[in-house]
Design the sequence.
């Protein structure tokens, strides 16, 4: 899994939005400690969370499974653009087939779980898909054989309010292990000056 923060809104934009309500612009320190405290106080402590929607983050997420992608799609207040299997299955078609224990080679295409039975089954499914592609079956039909472990990548844009919700739910130990990892990695990818808004949402910080 690889995460790149491509873009983020400066904190002073959110502070400006909050100060719009009370017309207190003269008290701003342009995203400094005073504005940071204001954002936390209004957005988190006073639960005027709609003000946090002015903070927006765009991430490039690589090397996650399609199983995780399904989980991610349940968080509707976000925008995602996903790598197309229609155009990219040629990568698998043109590669060598994999032995059942060739975890290193197969890892280019699938997310490994560490469970030998599951990972071996994923490699078998990968080889079956590859064989079908080499037989000339179109990608649109062949992709119905994709294992859930098949890797994908996406550009994901989310506002701070929705990201708080995502981190709170998905860093929980009851969440899918891969999406737990994603939640923690997203937090770690945030600018250090923004992380204070999300620290209380991390599951481990609540217990």
Sequence:
């Amino acid at each position: 899994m690889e995460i790149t923060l491509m873009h983020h809104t400066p904190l002073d934009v959110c502070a400006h939005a909050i100060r719009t309500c009370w017309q207190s612009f003269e008290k701003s320190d342009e995203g400094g400690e005073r504005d940071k405290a204001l954002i936390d106080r209004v957005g988190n402590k006073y639960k005027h969370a709609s003000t946090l929607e002015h903070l927006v983050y765009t991430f490039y997420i690589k090397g996650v499974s399609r199983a995780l992608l399904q989980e991610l799609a349940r968080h509707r207040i976000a925008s995602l653009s996903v790598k197309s299997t229609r155009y990219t299955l040629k990568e698998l078609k043109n590669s060598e087939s994999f032995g059942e224990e060739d975890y290193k080679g197969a890892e280019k295409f699938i997310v490994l779980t560490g469970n030998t039975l599951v990972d071996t089954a994923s490699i078998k499914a990968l080889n079956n898909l590859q064989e079908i592609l080499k037989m000339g079956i179109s990608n649109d039909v062949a992709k119905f054989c994709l294992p859930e472990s098949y890797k994908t990548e996406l550009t994901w844009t989310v506002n701070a309010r929705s990201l708080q919700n995502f981190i709170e739910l998905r860093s929980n130990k009851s969440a899918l292990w891969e999406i737990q990892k994603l939640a923690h990695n997203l937090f770690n990818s945030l600018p250090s000056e923004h992380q204070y808004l999300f620290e209380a949402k991390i599951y481990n910080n609540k217990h």
Q: What stands out?
A: The chain has two domains: 2-64+68-79+152-206, 83-151. The chain is about 45% helix and 15% strand.
